[in-house]
Amino acid sequence: MSHTFKTILITGATGQVGYELCRSLSVLGAILSPNREELDLADAHSVDAYLAKHQPDLIVNPAAWTAVDAAEVNQEATARLNTALPAQLAQYARKTNAYLIHYSSDYVYPGTGQNYWLESDAVAPLSVYGRTKLGGDKAVVNHCLHYLIFRTSWVYSDRGNNFMKTMLNLGAQRESLNIVNDQFGAPTNARLIAEVTALAVYRQLASKPIDSGIYHLVCGGITSWYGFAEKIFELAKRENLPLLLNELGGISTAEFPTPAARPQNSKLNVSKLEGALGITLPSWQQQLEFTFNSYMNNKD
Ligand SMILES: NC(=O)c1ccc[n+]([C@@H]2O[C@H](COP(=O)([O-])OP(=O)(O)OC[C@H]3O[C@@H](n4cnc5c(N)ncnc54)[C@H](OP(=O)(O)O)[C@@H]3O)[C@@H](O)[C@H]2O)c1
What we know:
Structural class: alpha/beta
CATH topology: Rossmann fold
Number of strands: 12
Bound molecules: NADP nicotinamide-adenine-dinucleotide phosphate
Oligomer: single chain
Number of domains: 1
CATH architecture: 3-Layer(aba) Sandwich
């Protein structure tokens, strides 16, 4: 048994998940984490040359075009990052027998009904972002032999641009806020995604790999964006953060139109991943406390 990978390529290491992956995977192999200046992932030739030069035996790909509304008017650039790049990485992985871990989204599902989505359910994305992410999933499944695709949702972290930090900023500036209360999903912190990824990588190294395939990876429990905001402000008040906010209201999706349609039901069933790894994913509330505390400890 080999205890480490020779070279782990982590794309998008300046992003929420990529940053955490660099910490969590550091004991599992030598990490390469080029930033945008060092490797422009939009440039297929540069990506080919980088792979040929460094020959990674594990590629972890959290890089993506994640600006969901801007994707509607940047279809080509979005498709490059979200579909063509994973296809290119998958082809390299197949050719060299490398292992590929890729990340996908709740936005591949149509968002209808009340049931939790299973990985085997029919997909029907509502937006350019969702369609291009689905294209990436299909490319990895079709081209690659040894891979994992983790579909996650509502990603946030103590750094970067995300809902938790937006709420804290807005709460400091505004007396009232209306937040969408009819979209349901599980807020999932980047650190948890990285830790579960590390567990899966370790299983691969220990010759007890989990089967190649698509797995949902989200925190336990379900809330709305309103419920998520309510909990963020509860923690902010507990820490005596200076807030102007005195009124948090709920608003429907119809009352808050956006260029890209959002799924209303983003509830992802995690039984497949929990069974494969023998773990229970922690609740979103517990992970929010953990992430919020980390934000408090690290902010200026
Ligand atoms: N965020 C969410 O709510 C959410 C929800 C469900 C699924 N996901 C999926 O989870 C994964 C991780 O998301 P995240 O929130 O960690 O993403 P993120 O914070 O937006 O990070 C994206 C990363 O991709 C990099 N990138 C984009 N275009 C690039 C290019 N042309 N060349 C080099 N680097 C480029 C960015 O670099 P720069 O820093 O230079 O821009 C950044 O490091 C993605 O697959 C995403 O689709 C995210």
